[in-house]
Amino acid sequence: MSNVIGTYADRFQAERAIDELKQIGFSDQEVSLIAKEEKARAEDGENAGEDSMGISGGVMTGGAIGGMAGLLAGAGLLAIPGIGPIVALGPLAATLGGAATGGVAGGLVDLGIPQERGSYYENEVKSGRFLAVVQTDEERASQAADSMRKTGANDVEVH
Question: For the whole prediction, is pTM greater than 0.70?
């Protein structure tokens, strides 16, 4: 099993990435997204109007959100020490829920990502970036990484 991880500057890029990953055959059980709750909510307000409910409750309101709709079943709002509330969509939500005391870095370490890189990605989430993780077999990892780069991801790594 491989984990492909990368960050996106904004919600639009992250949603586009999820859509692209779904189009090339990655499932809801393979794709996760993590964001600071207030960052997701602020961007919802910019894109969807004043009555927005945030990424966890209102992602269906946007036009380019199709790929995220399937992830909503795994959506969770978690309080992570040192970060605050985050929205976690996909299978990583369960991992983070069980490792809330270890934060995002702890959840990523549980997936096999080195502690140093897990801490780096946790800091990226703290700073307001959107973190995407694809858990897939080794044969498809490069396809996921290429797709993430194509949709604007930074710091794309395969572990």
Answer: yes
